[in-house]
C-alpha cells in the first residue's frame, strides 16, 4: 500500500524453479559435425537468478541401452568421462569435442517419417548424448544434457580470409 495515496497496487514478478542451483548450457554455431571434425562448443554456466557462475565441470558421453536408444533418465544409466572444462568468471568456457566412438552413437528416430526424402537422408546420421556436470567453489552443482548429431561426410568448401571486409582493389 502506498501511504501517500492509500492505494494498493498489484505487483507482479517471475519466479524460476530449478532442480539444481547451477544451470549449464551448450552452444555452438551448429548442432552437428562431420565424423572426422573436432567441433568447438561453448559451455555457459549461471545461477538460477542469471548471475554467471565460474565452475569446474566434466563432459560425459551417455551410453545407449541394448535397444540402441538413450535412457529417459541418462544420468542413472551408463556414461563415460570424456574431458574436463572450466568456465571463467563470466560463466563461459570452450571445449573441443574429440572423435565420438561408435559405441556412443545411435541412429536417430525419424520424427517426420511421412517425409520420404528426409527419412532416407536421415539414415546416415548418428546422435550422441552429451552430459555435462559442473560445480562451483562452494559445492553447488548443475547438470545438463545435449544431443549432438554426427552427419555423413559431404564435400564442402571453406573460405578463410585475411580480413573481414574487402574494398574494391584489395587483394
**Given the helix and strand composition, which structural class is it?**
mainly beta
Low-confidence stretches: 114-120
Oligomer: single chain
User: Number of helical segments?
Assistant: 1
Q: Globular, elongated, flat, extended or rod-shaped: what is the shape?
A: extended
Question: Termini, distance in Å?
Answer: 69 Å
Radius of gyration computed on alpha carbons: 22 Å
SSE sequence, one letter per element: EEEEEEHEE
Largest sheet: 5 strands, mixed
Strand content: 25-35%
- Compute the average pLDDT: 82
Strand order of the largest sheet: 2-8-7-4-5
Helix content: under 10%
The count of β-strands is 8
Q: Which features would summarize this protein structure in a list?
A:
five-stranded mixed sheet, mainly beta, 1 helix, 8 strands, extended, 171 residues, 4% helix, three-stranded antiparallel sheet
Task: Give a structural overview.
The chain has 171 residues and is mainly beta. It is 4% helix and 33% strand. The chain contains one helix and eight strands. The strands form two sheets. A five-stranded mixed β-sheet has the order 2-8-7-4-5, with no helix packed on it. A three-stranded antiparallel β-sheet has the order 1-3-6, with no helix packed on it. Strand 7 and strand 8 (141-150) form a beta hairpin. The longest helix has 7 residues, at 116-122. It is extended and about 70 Å long. The chain starts with 21 loop residues before the first strand and ends in a 21-residue tail after the last strand. Mean pLDDT is 82; it is low at 114-120.
Amino acid at each position: 500500500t502506498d501511504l501517500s495515496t492509500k492505494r494498493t497496487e498489484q505487483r507482479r514478478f517471475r519466479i524460476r524453479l530449478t532442480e539444481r542451483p547451477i544451470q549449464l548450457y551448450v552452444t555452438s554455431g551448429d548442432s552437428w559435425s562431420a565424423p572426422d571434425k573436432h567441433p568447438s562448443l561453448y559451455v555457459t554456466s549461471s545461477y538460477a537468478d542469471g548471475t554467471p557462475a565460474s565452475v569446474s565441470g566434466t563432459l560425459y558421453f551417455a551410453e545407449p541401452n541394448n535397444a540402441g536408444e538413450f535412457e529417459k533418465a541418462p544420468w542413472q544409466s551408463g556414461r563415460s568421462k570424456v574431458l574436463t572444462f572450466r568456465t571463467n568468471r563470466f560463466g563461459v568456457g570452450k571445449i573441443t569435442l574429440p572423435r565420438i566412438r561408435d559405441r556412443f552413437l545411435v541412429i536417430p528416430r525419424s520424427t517426420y517419417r511421412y517425409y520420404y526424402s528426409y527419412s532416407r537422408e536421415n539414415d546416415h546420421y548418428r546422435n550422441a548424448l552429451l552430459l555435462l556436470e559442473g560445480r562451483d567453489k562452494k559445492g553447488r552443482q548443475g547438470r545438463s544434457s545435449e544431443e549432438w548429431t554426427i552427419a555423413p561426410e559431404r564435400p564442402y568448401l571453406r573460405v578463410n580470409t585475411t580480413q573481414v571486409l574487402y574494398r574494391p582493389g584489395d587483394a
